[in-house]
Amino acid sequence: MALGFVANLRNARADAITTFVGASGKFRIYSGTRPATGGTATTQLAELTLNATFAPAASGGVLTLNAITQDSAADATGTASWFRLLKSDGTTIVMDGDVGTSGSDLNLTTTSITVGQPVSVTSFVLTEGNP
After folding, report:
1. What is the mean pLDDT of residues 31-47?
2. Domain boundaries in the chain?
3. Other beta carbons within 10 Å of 37
4. Nearest of 85, 83, 75, 80 to residue 25 by alpha carbon
5. pTM
């Protein structure tokens, strides 16, 4: 099936994620095989704090996050392969996704993470539903 949702519904669904995350959520970056969403995490490489305003209102079903504060010193060395988005409480899981340098759910400047070195996000864009 190929369902198509109107833009207003797609925007509302994307904006609900913004509301759920709240202020200053967190991206945790991991190496290893991504578990089922909510499953036991693998090795945490870095943690980045989201802007107090997660994202502006979605447009055309697309949610583009505001600036994400870099992690100035990675926790471990490894190859970033997946992320977990958490509410600001640091425990409530919102979503998991893939990591890369382009064309991924979460794009980093590099997936080669070295302990003590900075980790930066270049983009995170979520497209909700089908146009």
Report:
1. 93
2. 7-127
3. 11
4. 85
5. 0.89
